[in-house]
Design a protein that fits this description.
The protein has 194 residues and is α/β, with parallel strands linked by helices. The protein is built from nine helices and six strands; from the N terminus they run βαααααβααβαβαββ. Helices cover 39% and strands 17% of the residues.
Length: 194
């Protein structure tokens, strides 16, 4: 099987960010959550307080003002065209996406793209996590949980923070825009905060 990160790998942008801004446009009440999101961002990124999971839980509180399941369907009806051409050409039915984005956002792609999704388990109504953010070594743990005997033929990501998955793969690529570059295993992502 081939395994892919999602955001900026096979999807042109960051799907979580795109969905948040989509919700801001379609649900004016979500704008009331901007100060909370801003404060959570400052605490995590500037002052290094808390974990990435805690930061994202605070960020996702805006979901309380949404109709999440319906919004996700509407979002993908607009954004599915953002899947990169290289992926469409090499798609296989046993492809797996492993992403830190919320599962409720990416799960509809299983049917739309004929893939399997492993992502952060986030309550679609409260923003609360069930477990850790699916990032870095957590992606490997979640992969082994779902595919105990799984072998990764090729792995694709836009970030060296995914080195733990690249190390499991027979072949790995860094994705820069539409360019696929052989993974440089000597490159280490510094100052990772999970």
């Amino acid at each position: 099987m081939n395994v892919y990160d999602f955001d900026k790998t096979i999807y042109r942008s960051d799907s979580t960010r795109d969905f948040i801004f989509w919700c801001f446009r379609h649900h004016p009440k979500t704008i009331l959550y901007i100060p909370r999101i801003g404060l959570a961002s400052l605490k995590y990124y500037l002052f290094h307080i808390g974990t990435k999971t805690q930061f994202k839980e605070r960020m996702y509180t805006f979901l309380k003002a949404c109709d999440t399941e319906r919004d996700v369907e509407r979002f993908w009806s607009e954004k599915l065209g953002e899947i990169k051409a290289f992926y469409k050409k090499q798609h296989r039915d046993d492809d797996v996406i492993i992403s830190a984005s919320p599962e409720f956002l990416l799960k509809p792609l299983e049917e739309k793209l004929h893939i399997s999704v492993i992502a952060s388990k986030v309550d679609a109504h409260t923003g609360k996590y069930d477990g850790e953010n699916c990032y870095h070594a957590e992606k490997v743990r979640r992969f082994h949980e779902k595919y105990p005997d799984g072998k990764i033929e090729e792995f694709y990501s836009d970030s060296y923070s995914d080195a733990p998955l690249a190390e499991l793969s027979e072949k790995a690529y860094i994705v820069k825009g539409d360019e696929l570059i052989d993974w440089d295993h000597s490159h280490q992502k510094k100052n990772l905060r999970t």
